[in-house]
Amino acid sequence: MLVNLSDVLTVEGRQEKREIPLEMTVFEDGQGSYEITAKEPVKFVFTNAGAGKARIEGSTTLTFQVNCDRCLAEMPLILKVEFGQCVVSPDVKSGDGEDGDSCQGEDVQGMDDQSFMDGYQLDTEAFIHGEILVNWPAKILCRQDCKGVCPVCGQNLNVAECGCDTFVPDPRMAAIQDIFNAGKEV
Ligand SMILES: [Zn+2]
Ligand SMILES: [Zn+2]
Questions:
Q1: How far is the CA of 62 from the centre of ligand 2 (A)?
Q2: Which ligand is nearest to the CA of 140?
Q3: What is d(CA 83, CA 76) in angstroms, rounded to the nearest whole number?
Q4: Each residue's pLDDT tens digit, 134-173
Q5: Contacts by 89-98, CB closer than 8 A, 24 or more apart
Q6: pLDDT tens for residues 97-108?
Q7: 71 Cα–ligand 1 center, Å
Q8: What is the pTM of this model?
Q9: d(CA 37, CA 174)
Q10: Which ligand has an atom closest to residue 67 CA?
């Protein structure tokens, strides 16, 4: 959805609160796509932050259908997305508004990349997509001690042991062992 922020960007002290439904049903991060199985409207607070500037704050909670990185089991990933960043009006060129910059020192990742802004309009879908990306976990595990799958037969080792000989010597350990053995022979 496109939200017009021209009032918030231009009127001092202006604040608007909106609840905006998320249209996206699938999240794609360039490596995979994940179905969104539950979502709630995104709570936005838009606040004027000086001439030509606005802060976009808010939160939402989304549930994605994902797979465990180790055992590949399907699992829900519940992500609480909280955000707070500044945007500048299209009229404001970088270098302007140095005085009383209430956005300074804060999360200014969006100051240069405002691809979610279309003039004075905020593209909430693009904005939330970016925020999901930032919040996406580096590793998704069904549980902290997920045993993964057997590299030999593919058995999910959380479910059952398969009895395969999966001992793979660490090459570094092998090197140390060689030295040790060589020492013994002398
Ligand atoms: Zn797992
Ligand atoms: Zn096995």
A1: 36
A2: 1
A3: 22
A4: 999 999 999 999 999 999 999 999 999 999 987 766 666 6
A5: 89/6, 89/9, 89/10, 89/52, 89/53, 89/54, 89/120, 90/117, 90/119, 90/120, 91/52, 92/51, 92/52, 92/53, 96/52, 97/50, 97/51, 97/52, 97/53
A6: 444 455 654 544
A7: 4
A8: 0.78
A9: 47
A10: 1
Give bridge partners of residue 45 from the DSSP assignment: 17, 57
Identify which has the larger pLDDT, 179 or 97: 179
**CB burial of residue 126 (10 Å; 0-12, 13-18, 19+):** middle
In this structure, are residues 53 and 103 in contact, taking their beta carbons and an 8 Å threshold?
yes
Structure tokens that stand for 157 in this block: 């080792």
| Cα 70 to middle of ligand 2, angstroms | 15
The two structure tokens encoding residue 84: 């707070």
Which ligand is located closest to the Cα atom of residue 151? Answer: 2
**How many angstroms is it from 175 CA to the middle of ligand 2?**
27
Q: Which amino acid would we find at residue 184? A: K
Q: 67 C-alpha to center of ligand 1: Å? A: 8
